[in-house]
Design goal:
Layout (H helix, E strand, L loop, with lengths): L1 H7 L11 H11 L5 H8 L3 H11 L13 H8 L1 H17 L12 H19 L5 H10 L3 H13 L11 H9 L3 H11 L4 H8 L12 H14 L1 E3 L7 E3 L1 H7 L9 H20 L5
Antiparallel strand pairs: 1-2
Helix pairs in contact: 1-11, 2-6, 3-5, 4-6, 5-6, 6-7, 6-8, 7-8, 7-13, 7-15, 8-12, 8-13, 9-11, 11-12, 12-13
Length: 286
């Protein structure tokens, strides 16, 4: 089915335009000899990205008392790991905010879910002492990007679906109608964009813990964070109230991957996630 996924992303630019500047920033920030002036110059090539990054850098999520007024300020005062997170988050808004009718997602819903998974995955990764938390954050943010690609094909294929058929989970429906799924297509897209395996593999396996690569810590964390966010009911509008379904978690935790230090710190992790998500999500206009 991977070959089918590759076909869906072959001519994808109009559906999901590559966020080239943000990806260049990620690549430059990963380099051992990263130059702050060159990194600033690259970010400033995209005025929209620059504005979003400054907004997020000054949000309560990062908790800085002194206002950050330039891209160079972000890099010097917050470090390159923060730059990776802020740049890909800012670029993801335009990529993920459109409604996805085949998935019954209104404007902004896909991005809000993806952002929530990224924040929670980052906190879980830090507690697990994962090495590359920015790659895990990026994988969380882009784990459902395949839905952007498959939305229209799935709508068309669903027209002929028998409405009286037995209920099926989303991935099963995708595989039956399209011979691939949004996770595989997302992985193929990220590979096409040149992102590293530490990002693309967890995206491709976020609904499948049976593959050898699903034993990697990053894959486990994205799978776990996605499931936990689905157990977290939140009003992304005015109230911002959260409710974590502990009973549902207890009933399914035997099916979830084991991640170091998660179970013993779960309450604190969820509390931190709720606080950080509420602080950060309001920054972006959807």
């Amino acid at each position: 089915m991977i070959d089918v996924a590759a076909e869906y992303v072959r001519d994808v630019e109009k559906i999901a335009p590559c966020p080239e500047v943000a990806l260049d920033v990620l690549s430059m920030a990963h380099a051992a000899d990263c130059s702050i002036p060159k990194l600033s110059e690259k970010i400033e090539q995209d005025p929209g990205l620059t504005a979003n990054m400054l907004q997020m850098a000054n949000s309560a999520y990062f908790g800085h008392m002194k206002k950050i007024t330039s891209v160079k300020d972000i890099i010097v005062r917050m470090g390159v790991d923060a730059v990776k997170i802020i740049s890909i988050t800012s670029a993801s808004v335009g990529l993920l905010r459109s409604p996805q009718a085949a998935y019954a997602l209104g404007r902004g819903e896909l991005w809000r879910h993806s952002f929530a998974v990224a924040i929670l995955a980052n906190i879980i990764a830090r507690n697990a002492k994962a090495r590359d938390t920015s790659a895990i954050y990026t994988a969380g943010l882009l784990h459902d990007v395949g839905k952007v690609i498959l939305d229209r094909p799935l709508q068309v294929a669903s027209y002929s679906r028998d409405e009286n058929s037995e209920p099926e989970d989303l991935v099963t429906v995708e595989r039956r109608l399209l011979h691939t799924d949004h996770a595989e297509v997302g992985m193929a897209l990220l590979e096409k964009w040149g992102l590293p395996e530490a990002v693309s593999v967890p995206v491709g396996l976020h609904h499948d813990m049976t593959q050898p690569q699903s034993k990697r810590l990053g894959s486990k964390i994205i799978y776990l964070a996605d499931e936990l966010v689905h157990l977290t009911e939140y009003d992304a509008g005015s109230s911002g109230d959260f409710f974590f379904d502990v009973l549902a978690y207890e009933s399914m935790k035997g099916e979830l991957p084991e991640v170091p230090n998660f179970e013993s710190n779960m309450r604190l992790i969820i509390e931190e996630f709720v606080d950080k998500y509420q602080d950060a999500v309001a920054v972006f206009s959807l």
